[in-house]
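Hey, weird one. I pasted the Two component transcriptional regulator, LuxR family sequence into the form twice and got a warning about non-standard characters only the second time. First submission, copied straight from the form history:
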Amino acid sequence: MSDETQDDEEQAVVLVVDDDASVRDAIVSLLESVGQKTVAFPSAAAFLAAECPDAPCCVVLDVRLPARSGLDLQRDLRAAGNQTPVIFISGHADVAMAVGAMKAGAVEFLAKPFRDQDLLDAVHRALDVDRTRRCEAAALDRWRRLRESLSPREREIMALVASGLANKEVAATLSISEITVKTHRAQVMRKMEARSLPELVRIADRLAARDEAPDASV
């Protein structure tokens, strides 16, 4: 295991939200027994008032909470663009509730009482999901910064190349020479740090999808 992976695992945090102190303490004890850092909250309001850790994390969330339910909190998080993975736990769940939670993006829905190993497995999956999400978000941020270094013409050529046009077709579209297209494309590859044309196309597609996302400005 690399030092980077070890550091990442040490920083990972599980956020436990349950109004039942005995359940909350039991979950914290279980997670800490396997070396997992945890932070616990008695309500949705307490959770929302806290600062979100800048680290891989997930939320172990009771469905039934005072004032705002766990499902309400999940909706609040998604509406705010917070994609932290959620694991629901409940002693009073029905099929419709579980299906609704999973469709809204929950990683798992565990009925109380659940096996310790089931919760540990769910936490492991959720943290892996968040690590992947954070890595992808960091890559997108980096590519967006690199794209800002492109000239307007280079951006045009990047978009046309990513759409599948050959150099000759790009030249005809922009009314410039094919040599000029090749020169600009080489500059785009260098500035975007793309090692191959397929990689440049993948980067351009990812950036385009991010730009078109509803929460792209969040």
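That's the output from the first submission. The warning seems to come from a hidden character in my clipboard, not from the data itself. The longest helix spans residues 116-147.
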